[in-house]
User: Fold these one by one.
Assistant:
Number 1:
Amino acid sequence: MSEQLTAQQIYDMGKQYGATSTVSNKLIIRGASGSFIYGDLIGKNVPSIFLDFTSQVGCNAIGHGHLAILDAIDKQSGMELLHSCGNDWFNEQAVLLMKKLCEITPGDSLGKKVFLSNSGTESVEAAVKFCKARRRKNGEFKRERFLSFHGAFHGRSGFALSLNCSKKVHTAGFFHLRDDGDLSFGQQTKDRAMPVSHICFPHKYDRGSTEDFKAFLDILFLENVNAIFIELVQGEGGIRVIDHECLNLLVEKCRKNNVYIVVDEVQTGLMRTGKMFACDHYKLEPDIICIAKALSGGAIPIGATVVKKEFDFEPGQHSNTFGGNPLACRVALALINELEKINAREFFNRIGILEEFAPQGLGMMRRVVFDSKQRRDQVLDLALDNLLLLIGAGEKAIRLMPPLNISEQHLRLGINILKKCM
Ligand code: PLP
């Protein structure tokens, strides 16, 4: 098979054969190393090196081609055991990973269990099933409704999609052909894959929304609610950080009313926000945590749903083919091992540098907001022309998620390019 396609050929073939999805610019990626991506920008005739300030939406948390990740892949292929169905037969890497995930997530490590899958949306899908299964086992048949937030993004499969409330295009027509995907505040929907109410998100930087939220909490009816799904920092929704006091009030009310708390850490998990999990900032011990992206080591897709033991499934209630495969699990273990070795002082320096430039956000997950979507998109394009790869978030923000181990020099370089483009 040829590896000599020109950039234009790759682009044209992508358009010809690839189903339309989320490709939004003309960068063709050919290689990568550390915090950099090597590729071609259609229209420019020279291949270039781009600073990757997206970490590929958080997947490449320790950059591209990290030796520890390559070594894990090598070791596993050396054993010639690249795949076995981890949910059908146990393997050493999978059990080690599940134990590790129980240890690093908040709460008693012996009081938890893990379901392994292949993506963020599957980790959310499993979380919904855990909640439903437990209610059924308890005979709590009235608890059919789920809560999530305006601005929420939890994935693209049935239950996860039902929880979403960020962009209309994600949901429009996928539950009801005539449905335009629009949801106003507090509106309940029965016609998604499950009944969901989307409530206002108490955004730390917006006093209005936190005041509204407190008033709203007083009248929030929870008797028929199964679980609430929370992103402590909304990623796709625009890097919006939840207000601490509002979260505490919400958690207290949910606990009092027997509502399960699920935290989606698919984007925030594994040190992206400066601590192992965003939950650690809030001293929150949820019933369920969803993990993916960074767990892949930027290499092998994986998802994980960590639950309190009492949520465990009955045999056969849930499974999959690729979850818990030894290759993905070995890579995930190597990634966690590297995260645990990150020099704290240097890490907090990097966070400080990023925070000084972009005060809104948490840890290495921050944003710059523009007046309009059009202006934001212009800056994204200009940055790309200046060899800085970025992605948007929400309607008019740019998301800053450089690798956690980026050097200070490269971090400053990226910030300076962005400043120039603005
Ligand atoms: N949950 C959150 C918070 C996400 O940011 C994403 C993806 O961006 C998902 C779930 C879905 O993950 P995936 O695209 O791996 O299915």
Number 2:
Amino acid sequence: MSRSELSGSEATLVRDGELWCEDVRLAEIGDAVGTPCYVYSEHIIRSRFTSFASTFKDVDHRVFYSVKANHNLAVLETLRGLGAGADVVSVGELHRAKLAGFAGSDIVFGGVGKRNDELEAALAAEIFLVNVESESELCRLSEAAARQGTVARVGIRVNPGVEASTHSYTQTGHYGTKFGVAREDAVDVYARAAELSGIEPRGINAHIGSQILQPEPYQQTLQLLVDLVRDIRRRRLQVDYIDIGGGFGIRHDTGAGIDLDAVAHMAVEACSDIDVVLLFEPGRWLVAPAGILLTRVLYTKQLGDRVYCVTDTGSNDFMRPSYYSAHHPIEAVRDGPREVTADVVGPVCETGDFLGRDRKLPKLGEGDLLAVMYAGAYGLVMSSNYNSRPRAAEVLVAGSSYRVVRRRESLDDLVALERDNA
Ligand code: LLP
């Protein structure tokens, strides 16, 4: 059995006793680019997008990649080239999407707290849909549209009151979270939107959370949204789109994800007798398995009954293990019998600074490379400069070649905004 099967990661494979990404040795990237370094497989991004789209081939649909999962321009360009749209949540993400070549008509803009300048930027870009989360936001958008003499196509985000089983920080579909308008109010809010000048309501949407592994919450949500579409149409208002959001999860132990076929089956059933286009906003599902985080061992030591493997990669570089207690498999880049149980930690001055605890690994020495799996989503995008640590580099592998798609930050980069008074 290959190491990649053991770890369940798609981004790597074992050849000649070491880990490769596509046809490039990870050790070659580690030596040339340094660590920490995020490495993405273009092939995996492509194949996952194609597979997502073909799973839903029996429903009229569009896929808007959720830029927040991995906003690197090269990743965005890859997905755009495959026909994805972009789901953005800030003017910064809109800027990136436009730079990566997405047309306004291929962008949806969501988020619970959009500023005036963000609403204005969305209107100026003539984006496909602004997903609005409150009546106050609708009024603001209407005013902004009037100022610009334009019309905003709008989706109303509904809080469906569905609690999906996932980390509480990433549950977003039940009351007690800040998202959307109450489902009881949704039809009235939609009707109100239709009365406002400069607003053209066209769809309803929900996003119930992230890293969801069961299809059932999607079924509940979809059923609710379909019922709402019927209620809205009874008021003789037009609805063209149901946006079900993202959240499709991946298991890090087996590599299996949510049963997307089951979700597709439900979608076909639920939408069989209403004429709508389904919109999806997947992030993690498309890119998490395509990425690994390459890190180098600085020291190993025994302290009491524990072995610590101190790496050059901290929780500032990869927050998921410490922030969500997320378990990401960690593999030695050079294969060997797993003889040691160690805590893989970083250099940041906090006990919460770890990449993984109690990991079975080969005996490691200074300079050895490790790969943290499923790091293609919510990795670099959530990293920070805490402890004045320059952010990691990013590399995109395609076949036997690779390129740095974000250079490592320099010490000058760290202070540039404090020194640059221009
Ligand atoms: N659409 C909306 C409105 C969202 O808020 C999100 C994610 C997505 C789509 C994409 O969700 P995905 O398919 O990637 O699960 N930092 C957390 C995940 C937070 C997700 C926030 N919203 C993590 O590392 O697990």
